[in-house]
Specification:
With about 100 residues, this protein is of the alpha+beta class. Strands 1-2-3-5-4 form a 5-stranded antiparallel sheet, with helices on one face. The structure holds adenosine monophosphate and zinc ion.
Length: about 100
C-alpha cells in the first residue's frame, strides 16, 4: 500500500525506532507514547483492520501477541495492556493492523 505510513516504516522509507523485526512482523515505538513503554507491532502484510482479517491471518496476529509478550519482558514491564483499535469509531487512525503494547 503506497500511501500507508506503517508500510513505509516496514520498507524503511520513513524512520522508526525499531524494537523487533522478523519475516512476519515489525515492532517500533509509538511517536506519541501513552505509557513508559508504548510499542506498535504490525504484520508485514498490509491488512487494514482486524475486521478485514482473512483465513490464515490469525497466525500472524498470534505471532504479534507472542512478540509483544517477549518485548514486555525485555523492557521489564510490571504490567501491560495489549490493544487493537478496530475502526475509526474506536479511535483507529492508522489503517494497517497494529497491536499497541502499553507497559509500565
Ligand atoms: P490507532 O489510533 O490505534 O490507529 O493508533 C495509531 C498510532 O500510531 C498512534 O498511537 C500514533 O501515535 C501512532 N503513529 C502514527 N504515526 C506514527 C509514526 N510515523 N511512527 C510511530 N507511530 C506512529
Ligand atoms: Zn500498510
Amino acid at each position: 500500500m503506497d500511501d500507508c505510513i506503517f508500510c513505509k516504516i516496514i520498507k524503511k522509507e520513513i524512520p522508526g525506532t525499531i524494537r523487533h523485526e522478523d519475516e512476519h512482523c515489525l515492532a517500533f515505538d509509538d511517536i506519541h507514547p501513552k505509557s513508559r513503554i508504548h510499542i506498535l507491532l504490525v504484520p508485514k502484510k498490509h491488512i487494514a483492520t482486524i475486521a478485514d482479517l482473512e483465513e490464515g491471518d490469525e497466525l500472524v496476529i498470534g505471532h504479534l501477541v507472542k512478540i509483544a509478550k517477549e518485548l514486555a519482558k525485555k523492557f521489564e514491564c510490571k504490567g501491560y495492556q495489549l490493544v487493537f483499535n478496530v475502526g475509526k469509531e474506536a479511535g483507529q487512525i492508522v489503517f494497517h493492523v497494529h497491536l499497541h503494547l502499553l507497559g509500565n
